[in-house]
Every structure is written in C-alpha cells, then in structure tokens.
Amino acid sequence: MSGIVTNDYMRALLKTVYVSGVANAKKQGSTVLGKVKKEAFEGKEMKYAAQYANGGNFGVNYGAIVGAMDEGVRNVEWTMEPGHLTGVFSINQPEVLSSATDRAAYMKAIANKMSGCFDGLAKTLATFMYSGKDGIIGKVTAASGQTITVDRSTALKMDLGTKFRVVADIADYASATVLTVIGKSKGVITFSGTASPAVGNLIVLNAKGNGVAGPDGLADIIPVERTDDNKMFRGVDRSKAWDNLAGQSVTSADHTGAKMADALVELLKEVKLAGGTNVSLIINDDDYDEITKALGLNQYYFVGVNSGENKNHVTKGMTSLATAFGDAFTGNAIIDPYCPKGTAYMIDLNDFTFYGLNGIDKVINPVANDQLGKYDVESVGDAGIGDNPSVQLNMDKLFTISEGQADETGPTFLVAAHLYGNFAIRDTAACGVCQF
C-alpha cells in the first residue's frame, strides 16, 4: 500500500481514524408537505359541506318567478375516507449489539434505518399529495432495454430499490410486472424485471391495494382534465359545476416560458373571481426556471456594495417569482421539485389540510426542509423504540412491531411506520391548476 509513510514498522504504528457521523447524501424532500395544515381524522369517514350555487329564483317579475321556482340554493356533502401509507424495515439482535457504541459504528443501526424509513415515507406521501390515490410517479419519456428516461421530478421520486410498474393505462395496473430500480443517473433509470416500456407509459408505485388506497392528492381534488371518469369524487357529481367543485383549470397555449407566465396570470384571474386572493403558487423547479429565463428575469444583475467582502460581487438569477392580477397576489412562489413538471397549483395553504388518524408530524418534522437544506440523518433517532424492540400494536400511535422470519443469528423484528389519513380542500372553487 502506498502512502506518505513508507516505513512498514512506522506504518504499523499508525491508526485508521474514522470521522464521526453519517452525512445525508440524498435529495431534498418536498418543500410543500411540511406547510400543509394537520388536523385529526375521526371515525370511519368524515363529511364536510359546501354551497356551490344560489339557484335561479331571482328577477323582476315576481309572479313569473313564483310560477316556475327553481330548487334554489345548492349544497353538496363530501365524504372522505382515510388512505394508508406504510414504510417498513427489519432489525435483528446482532445489528443492535454491534452498533451500540460510537466506537463500534458511525451510528446505531435502528436509528439509521429509522431515518431512511421516515424520509422515504415522507417522500412517498409527497408523491401521493400530487399524484393522487393511484400513486402515479410520472411518465416514460424514452426507453431502451432495461432503462427508461424520465424528467427530473419523476426521477426524484424513484430511489434505489423503488418498486414500480409501467402501464399504458392505470386500468392495466394489476397485470403489469413489478420492476425494481437498481441504478439511476439524473433522469436515466435502470431497472430489474421484465417489461417493455414505451414513451408515454405511466410509471406507478407498486402501492395500490385491494380495497385500501393511498390518500387522495391534488390530481384528484383539482384535476386538470374533467371527464366522466373523474366526475364522481367523494360521493359528489362534480360535472354539474366543475369550476366550483373541482377548482379552476387553465391550460397554456404552448410550453414556452412566456406563455406559461400568461397562463399563470389567467389562472389567478379565475381563482380571484372565486375568492382565492390568498393563494400560494406551487410550481416545479424546471418550470420556474423556464419562466424566468423566457421573461429575461434571470438576466438581471444586482451589484452589491463595492467595498469590503462584497467588492465587485455580482449575483445573477431570481430569488422570487410572484403572480398578480389586480389586487390578487400569489406572493413568492413555492418551488417544489415534487410538483409534477408541466403542472402548477394555486392553493390557499390555510385550507389545504391533511386529516390524519395518527401523528403525521412525527414523520414529516424530522425530515422537513424549506427550499434550502436537508435534514440531519442523525437527528431522527430511534423514535422511542430503543435497543429492545418488542411486539407491539399502535406504538406511539405510529408503529407496529412484529416478529419476522428467523435467520441464522436469531429472530428478526419488522418495524413499520403507518400513516392513515387524507388530504382535503374545502373551498375548492378558490384554488386552481395550470397545465403547461
């Protein structure tokens, strides 16, 4: 072995030194998920009401109105059931014992696995927050052999080991082969398994259940397309008043930055008319970049004070993007790479709520971050399980711990974190979606 000390006797005197801690070499989580309101879900289902029309009993001729009275005020009652997501890992006695001290391991095995479980579960919840209960990750943009190419937002949601299926239509899900991500480089995903993906195919998380679904997401609550297939939602026929019961929808004339910006202003005009004057713009980072480039906003230069450490300091780029129409104003855009490319939302975050049967904050808070930064892997800890896991149900209203299959060293325990709940927007008219 080469080195700066070449004398073998002296090399035998030197130690190998390990730097403490475990770095987070993963991508960020969703910048929106941590901002969503959290409320308690109770019962087998929750109902909430909305008034979406006044009826037609108005005019000049009282007699004519009375003679042909309309039904009047229209109300609907939504029925929301909880969805389910889970993350699981195994732990055995040798892993616990051999990682018990800082001298023996960079960190304890159970804390290391818990960190991955919480981060993965939060990122999966973010996927469902946008894609909806079907767990659609994105679409195939190119395919060759055992690789597919996807956009950045889709690649972000596909980690090493992710199980997924590729289908031409969501109805084909059950018959599709389960594939596994075994390699990724930016937007190129290498998978194991047998499949023949084609451009435009849907990439779906291997998460759909029989009778149990993931939570409804923005794609369900504020759909871009309004068809017979999605007119029924939570027991309500939205086709009688799409804009009021499914939010405002605008499609850009083409996918260029200037047209995209025009579409956002058009959407805000529609959202403002429905009372959405306190909405946040949620947009994918690629779309944000394309808009600022097309408008020339990223070409502005801001020169700092020409003295001290800032001497000749130049900044290029955009720190904020807002949309305004009259008095309506979106404020600074929330750039979330988990938001699907080509889709932007205007939502009142005081209304956008996750109703949970258990503590979603326990999963999200340790891994939350804003537009900058990542969570500390070591900060998550063992979530109270400690070094002596035992079979339990509903531990801390979050975990189930069960005995798994025995291996050569002894029994293993399966630790699963469960999230039960659903997303809801009550004032659907005052929010909207834009497709570029």
In summary, what is this structure?
The chain has 436 residues and is α+β, with helices and mostly antiparallel strands. 19% of the residues lie in helices and 27% in strands.
SSE blueprint:
Blueprint: H1 8-11, E1 37-40, E2 46-53, H2 62-67, E3 74-80, E4 83-92, H3 93-98, H4 109-131, E5 136-139, E6 142-144, E7 147-149, H5 152-156, E8 163-167, E9 179-185, E10 188-192, E11 202-205, H6 218-221, E12 232-233, E13 236-237, H7 242-246, E14 248-251, H8 257-273, E15 280-283, H9 285-294, E16 301-303, E17 314-316, E18 324-325, E19 328-329, E20 334-335, E21 343-347, E22 353-356, H10 361-364, E23 392-395, E24 399-403, E25 412-424, E26 432-435
Helix pairs in contact: 8-9
